[in-house]
C-alpha cells in the first residue's frame, strides 16, 4: 500500500544541514504514513554519499543539475505524486507527531488546500521564526506579515496563537499541500527564483477555491536566515521585485494599476531612505527591482477577476506610525 505523504527536502550542496537536521526529521516522521525524500539539485559536496551511508531509509531523487528551489520542487512533485506533499527546508527540525497532525487535519478538511505547522526558531526555541511563525497574511498593500511577526519584530511564543486559523499564505519552510492541487495551479513560479514564491502559490490555491490554514498543534523549528542577511542588496532586490510581481500576477484589472501605483510610491520612499543613509547598494537594488519587474511583468497576461487582498490593515502605518509590534494588537486583521 502506497503511503499518502511525501516529505520532500530539496538539497543543493547542503551536506552540513542534512547532517544536522535530517536525523530528527527521520526520527519524528511516522514511516507508516510518510516517506522522507531528498530531491538533490546536482550536489557535488558529498551529500549523496552521506545519505547512502547514514540515512538508508531516506529516498533520493537525483537531478542532473541545480534547477533552483521552485523548479526543483516542481520536478520532484511531478515525479512522486503522493496524495500530499510536504515542502520541508533542509534547516528544519521536526517534533513528535508533526506530520501525523498535519495529515489528519488535511484528511478531515477537504476544503483546505495547504497548511503549515507552527514554526519556532532553532536558536531561540521560545520565539517564533521569521519565515512563517504561526501563519502568514498580506496587508492592503501586499506586504507580508505573520501571526507572531510584524516586519523585523518577532514575538515570543506563549501560546497566544495556538488556535487553528485560516491564513493568506503558508511558509515554504514547512508547507503541506495536496499534490494534485499543487500541479493544477501550476506549482511554484520558477521566475521568482527566491522569496515570496510560496505566497504566490498560496494566492493561486485560494483563487482556486481552497483554504490555507495553520495548524499550530504541529510544531517545527526553523534555523532560517539562509545565505542572505536582511541587509544584503540581493535580498532587497528579490523582495522588491517579487512583491511587485506577486501583485501584478494575482490582482484583477479593477484594482491592479492603482495598487501598483501606491506600491511604487512606498518603494520610492524606501529608495530615498537608502540614499539618505548612504546605502547606495540597496538603493540601486530597488531601482533594478523596478526595472526588471517592468520587463518580467509582460509575461503575465492573464489575471483573476477576484481581488483577495484585504482592505485592512495597513502594516506600514500600524507598525511605523502607530508603533504596533504584535499581531494581536492590530485592530483590523483577518
Topology, number of strands: 13
- Determine Rg (CA atoms, Å): 19 Å
Shape: globular
Helix and strand succession?
Answer: EHEHEHEEHEEEEEEEHHEHHHH
Instruction: Indicate the low-confidence ranges by residue numbers.
Output: none
Give the integer mean of the pLDDT values: 95
Number of helices: 10
Q: Determine the fraction of residues in helical runs and give it as a percent range.
A: 25-40%
Approximate strand percentage: 15-25%
Give the N-terminus to C-terminus distance in angstroms.
41 Å
Note the main sheet.
Answer: 9 strands, mixed
Structural class: alpha/beta
Summarize the structure in short.
By secondary structure, the chain is of the alpha/beta class.
Brief descriptors of the model:
334 residues; nine-stranded mixed sheet; two-stranded antiparallel sheet; 10 helices; globular
Amino acid at each position: 500500500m502506497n503511503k499518502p505523504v511525501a516529505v520532500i527536502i530539496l538539497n543543493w550542496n547542503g551536506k552540513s544541514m542534512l547532517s544536522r537536521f535530517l536525523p530528527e526529521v527521520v526520527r519524528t516522521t511516522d514511516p507508516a504514513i510518510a516517506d522522507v525524500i531528498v530531491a538533490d539539485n546536482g550536489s557535488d559536496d558529498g551529500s549523496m554519499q552521506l545519505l547512502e551511508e547514514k540515512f538508508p531509509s531516506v529516498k533520493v531523487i537525483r537531478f542532473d543539475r541545480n534547477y533552483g528551489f521552485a523548479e526543483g520542487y516542481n520536478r520532484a512533485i511531478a515525479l512522486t505524486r503522493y496524495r500530499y506533499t510536504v515542502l520541508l527546508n533542509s534547516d528544519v527540525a521536526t517534533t513528535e507527531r508533526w506530520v501525523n497532525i498535519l495529515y489528519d487535519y488535511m484528511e478531515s478538511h477537504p476544503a483546505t488546500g495547504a497548511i503549515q505547522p507552527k514554526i519556532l526558531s532553532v536558536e531561540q526555541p521560545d520565539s517564533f521564526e521569521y519565515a512563517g511563525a504561526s501563519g502568514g497574511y498580506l496587508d492592503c498593500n501586499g506586504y507580508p506579515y505573520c501571526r507572531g511577526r510584524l516586519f523585523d519584530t518577532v514575538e515570543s511564543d506563549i501560546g497566544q496563537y495556538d488556535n487553528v486559523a485560516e491564513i493568506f499564505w503558508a511558509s515554504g519552510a514547512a508547507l503541506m499541500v495536496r499534490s494534485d492541487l499543487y500541479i493544477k495551479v501550476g506549482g511554484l513560479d520558477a521566475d521568482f527564483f527566491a522569496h515570496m514564491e510560496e505566497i504566490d502559490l498560496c494566492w493561486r490555491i485560494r483563487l482556486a477555491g481552497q483554504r490555507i490554514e495553520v495548524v499550530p498543534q504541529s510544531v517545527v523549528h526553523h534555523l532560517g536566515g539562509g545565505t542572505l542577511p536582511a541587509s544584503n542588496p540581493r535580498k532587497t532586490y528579490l523582495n522588491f521585485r517579487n512583491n511587485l510581481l506577486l501583485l501584478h500576477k494575482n490582482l484583477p484589472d479593477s484594482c491592479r494599476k492603482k495598487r501598483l501605483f501606491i506600491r511604487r510610491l512606498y518603494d520610492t520612499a524606501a529608495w530615498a531612505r537608502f540614499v539618505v543613509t548612504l546605502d547606495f547598494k540597496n538603493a540601486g537594488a530597488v531601482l533594478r527591482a523596478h526595472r526588471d519587474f517592468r520587463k518580467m511583468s509582460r509575461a503575465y497576461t492573464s489575471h483573476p477577476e477576484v481581488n483577495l487582498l484585504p482592505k485592512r490593515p495597513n502594516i506600514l502605518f500600524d507598525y511605523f506610525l502607530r508603533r504596533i509590534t504584535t499581531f494581536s494588537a492590530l485592530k483590523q486583521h483577518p
